Amino acid sequence: MSSRSNIVNIARREVTVRVRTRSYKLGTALLAIGVIAMALLPVIITKIEGVSSSKVAVVAPDATVAARAQATITTLLNTGQTGSSTSAPDFVISIAANLAAARADVMGGRLSGVLGIERATDRSLAFTYYSNDAASGRTSSLLRQGANAIAIADRLDRLAIPAAQQATLFLPAAYAVAWPDPARTDPVKDGAAAVGQDLLGFAMTILIFMIIVMYGNWVAMSVAEEKSSRVMEVVLNAATPFQLLAGKVFGVGLTALIQYGVVVVAGVAALAATPAIAAKVLGGAAAAVSLPEGLTPGLLLLFGLYGILGFLLYATLYAAAGSLVSRQEDVQSAVMPMTLISMVGYLVGVYTSTGLLDARSGWMTAVVQIPFLSPFMMLSRVAGGFAQPWEVPLSLVILAASIVGAIWLAARIYAVGVLLYGQRPGYRAVWRLLRDGM
């Protein structure tokens, strides 16, 4: 048989054996269900949050202060809520007459909290929020802002400042955020867009890490399994070590593409159906649900490229490491160097996407070009808008060139390792055998 036929036959066998296993079918189904659930997560969260409103009571010394507090706090606590005018607000603010009874309602779970307002001896207002929630939570922080606004308005009333003049005092100042680079004219991303893009880079980094580590271990385990059963000796009579290496890498890679193809199709279908599902489930509140910021065809293309190239780079080395052991129990120790390297790239990519590491630093620009790290790190830089135009093409070229070198090295190690049985040789012994041209 020709070299191509041998590679195709070996790859076909890998695909046929693996896709028929129950674990593969169950894993594919669970991944697809998980992706669909993640795609519909905004609808689910919006539905859960819209089921009921939190109730907060206000106890004030007089009707004027109570009415002002109710209006101010209602506006502040429901800031950012979207949806139709008929949808339930996040918070319902009521006026209570008795502070002790209101605090009892909080303890009984009938109220989320109560804001007690009293007049001090100097006629100024004092505020106390009674709640089981954290003192530094979002609700408490917004109530603090509301208390300041209420107190200032009350002082102005006592100074006999007309209401029309009071309104002008609280007009917001002109404030804008701009890029430090004068050449950038694109609008600055708001907080929601930035968080969405960070989460997008975070999710893609995790997926690529799963592809490389999980399927790379499949390659190593497959090699060790055939070697331990002595099937390798029979196979080597019909195919060269390089053909066997290439067939296993391409076979497992095709198996991974099939599984992730199902997952991607399920996710895309769920995202496409999200508006219709949101309209059906949420009604007028469906406007609150939107696709993740930064999810573009270009980013999806880069995800596919880095996923495939990263897998090819690591899978060849995983196969070479698997050929050095005769028992499946020793596979994990053999592939530990690749696992550690991939873990470093994964952690740096995750820390970058979550903001724990500065993606704009000089060392990050240099490290991201390392081929063993670029599949994990580059997507978070692209999703966050930190990558320069030259970074992506250069990293892809370096990654592709590294795959060629890795195949050459892995083929030589593979040719040595598949014929070694018994105790796993040390790195010096492997180097000596490679040098002697075995």
Task: Walk me through this protein's architecture.
The chain is mainly alpha-helical and 438 residues long. The chain has two domains: 3-39 and 191-435, no CATH class; 53-169, D-Maltodextrin-Binding Protein, domain 2, CATH 3.40.190. Helices cover 64% and strands 6% of the residues. The protein has helices spanning 3-19, 22-39, 41-49, 63-77, 99-107, 138-158, 163-169, 191-228, 231-235, 241-282, 297-322, 331-334, 336-353, 362-367, 374-384, 391-417, 427-435, and strands at residues 54-59, 91-95, 113-119, 125-131. Strands 2-1-3-4 form a four-stranded mixed sheet, sandwiched between helices. Helix 8 runs parallel beside helix 11 (297-322). The model is unreliable at 82-86 and 190-196 (pLDDT under 50).
> What general outline do the C-alpha atoms trace?
elongated
Summarize the main sheet: 4 strands, mixed
Strand content: 5-15%
- Would you report the number of β strands? 4
Low-confidence spans: pLDDT under 50, at least 5 residues? 82-86, 190-196
Content-based structural category: mainly alpha
**Order of secondary-structure elements:** HHHEHEHEEHHHHHHHHHHHH
Overall residue-averaged pLDDT value: 76
Q: Roughly how many Å is the radius of gyration? A: 31 Å
Give the helix proportion (percent range).
Answer: 55-70%
Number of helices: 17
